[in-house]
Write a structure and sequence with these properties.
Blueprint: E1 6-7, H1 13-23, E2 28-29, E3 32-33, E4 35-37, E5 40-42, E6 46-47, E7 50-51, E8 58-59, E9 63-64, H2 67-84, H3 89-105, H4 107-118, H5 122-147, E10 151-152, E11 157-160, H6 166-179, E12 184-187, H7 194-206, E13 211-214, H8 218-225, E14 233-238, H9 240-253, E15 256-261, E16 266-269, H10 275-285, E17 298-302, H11 306-318, E18 327-328, H12 346-361, E19 365-369, E20 390-393, H13 400-403, E21 410-416, H14 419-426, E22 432-438, H15 442-448, E23 454-459, E24 479-482, H16 487-492, E25 494-495, E26 504-506, E27 509-511
Helix pairs in contact: 1-4, 2-8, 3-5, 3-7, 4-5, 4-7, 5-6, 10-11
Length: 513
């Protein structure tokens, strides 16, 4: 009989909220967070109700501004930018470094907010915070040569990012952009993370870093955050539909841009025998329920290898652990080591479940279907945002699972007989951020890898976004604008020599680093 679980003492949403109000009372008021613009916290905007994906209990929702208020925020950020760009680099470094110290001091609170707001297991929530802090420290320590001969942009950097990595992607980018001499604007993701971002921004603003944090619908705020002439650069992380609209806008305006979009990252298996290594890595590929831009939801497998692949894959996927991220058997137990918790919301779990059912109805073969009965949940807990791992063989071409990233714990497998079929299936989405090819022969990898339309291709091991000096971008429709990572992130948000061509995918050229 499974043990009865309880919420770890001190980890309730009310506990986290009270700690936020004590740490940053200027940014948290009663049951709502405030918007940050013109270097002040404003109780404006219409606060929407929100629920935690963990158990559907209420959490703080985003206080959504209208277009008029967003324009005021952008104009105020330009004023900050004109002052900040003249602050000497040693002073900017000191202020960003002090912000990192403050983030480190409140690391566990930031991680707890990520658990409740976006459903990250404790281990991954802590890692998100740590990667932000450690990544920005790398820039603080080595920024001088990166800025040699460069200057801040003419206006602030506007950030519109997805909800899945508030710290290691969004806050990381914001602090590096500020370190490079720019004022920074960010739109809080609608689906989650607003309290975590509010606390992080509050700590930065106390150190004099010129950040703006606003909430609102993309459609209503896009005119201000994308098209405003004051904006020096637009940085976007999200889906292709929204990214394409932003790409059209910035191309029309000739505006600097960084647009990271989704792609179907694939793992190919061709003339390969070391399947024990594959068994070891499969559970790691399910981190955060594959709600990551560098997740691998598609395996393209040589028919000849399929039996061995399946024998290695199925035991691994059956070992995946999911459940309530804060549920323990005894009060003094450590928080559970889960591979993932809920999806971002119940609607996403239902949508993906419906896509799986439809694909099966149209001929896909279910090789594995997990069950929530094996998960770790509180008695009577709402589990509507949870989806157990699913693996489908041969998704039909009519299914979204055939050509698009599911952004959830659903793997699809496509079988191929020839190298041409392998490459066609691995390039199904017309460009991706990462890919992997498992093959025993290094010469085969060297020959096929350049034909895989991914920015990074691993040999027998996964690739990631990377940290510090590792570059990042995408091929095809998975990326538009400047590439980032390492020195390229600084180059993307600064002005260099006249006529400089930044590495990236642009309307009139593509240049690799």
């Amino acid at each position: 009989m499974a043990p009865t679980l309880t919420l770890k003492p001190g980890t309730a949403w009310t506990d986290a909220w009270q700690r936020c109000a004590a740490v940053a009372p200027e940014a948290f008021r009663d049951d709502r967070v405030l918007n940050l613009w013109a270097a002040r916290w404003h109780a404006d905007g219409r606060a929407l109700p929100a629920t935690s994906p963990v158990d559907q209990s209420p959490v703080a929702g985003p206080p959504r501004l209208d277009t008029t208020a967003a324009r005021q925020a952008v104009r105020a950020s330009l004023d900050q930018h004109r002052a900040w760009r003249h602050i000497p680099l040693p002073e900017r470094r000191a202020r960003v470094a002090a912000t990192l110290d403050a983030l480190a001091e409140h690391r566990e609170l930031l991680a707890l907010l990520l658990v409740w707001e976006i459903g990250k297991p404790w281990r991954l929530a802590q890692a998100d915070v740590d990667r932000a802090i450690d990544g920005v420290r790398w820039y603080v320590e080595g920024i001088e040569p990166m800025l040699d001969g460069r200057s801040p942009l003419g206006g602030p950097v506007s950030n519109i990012a997805s909800w899945n990595y508030p710290m290691s992607v969004l806050v990381h980018a914001m602090l590096v952009q500020a370190l490079a001499g720019n004022a920074v604007i960010a739109k809080a993701p609608t689906d989650g993370g607003v309290a975590c971002l509010t606390l992080a921004c509050a700590l930065a603003v106390r150190e004099g870093v010129p950040l703006t944090l606003v909430s609102g619908s993309g459609g209503e705020l896009s005119e201000a955050l994308v098209r405003s002439p004051e904006i020096g650069c637009v940085s976007f992380v999200g889906g292709r539909d929204t990214g394409a609209r932003i790409a059209t806008a910035v191309a029309d305006l000739g505006k600097r841009h960084i647009l990271e979009q989704e792609g179907l990252n694939t793992w190919g298996v061709w003339n390969y025998t070391d399947f024990s290594a594959l068994t070891a890595v499969i559970p790691k590929l399910f981190d955060y329920g594959k709600q990551r831009c560098t997740a691998y939801p598609r395996f393209v497998v040589q028919c000849e290898c399929f039996a061995d692949f399946l024998a290695a894959y199925l035991p691994a996927v059956r070992s995946i652990r999911t459940g309530h991220p804060l549920a323990v058997e005894h009060p003094d137990d450590p928080l559970p080591a889960l591979d993932f918790g809920p999806l971002i919301n119940a609607a996403k779990a239902k949508e993906l479940g419906d896509q799986v059912a439809e694909a099966i109805d149209r001929g896909a073969v279910p090789l594995h279907r997990g069950t929530l009965a094996d998960g770790r949940f509180l008695p009577g807990q709402d589990t509507s945002a949870y989806l157990p791992p699913v693996t489908l063989l041969g998704p039909p071409p009519s299914s979204p699972l055939h050509h698009a990233e599911p952004f959830g714990p659903v793997d699809t497998i496509v079988l191929v007989d020839t190298e041409a079929e392998l490459l066609a299936a691995m390039n199904a989405s017309g460009g991706a951020l990462v890919a992997t090819l498992s093959t025993d022969d290094p010469a085969t990898f060297r020959r096929l890898a350049p034909q895989i339309r991914a920015f990074k291709t691993g040999h027998n091991k996964p690739r990631s976004r990377g940290d510090r000096d590792e570059l990042f971008g995408g091929f095809g429709a998975s990326w538009r604008g400047a590439f980032v990572g390492g020195e390229l992130l600084v180059r993307a948000v600064t002005e260099g020599p006249a006529g400089e061509r930044l590495p990236g995918n642009f309307p009139d050229y593509q240049l690799n680093a």
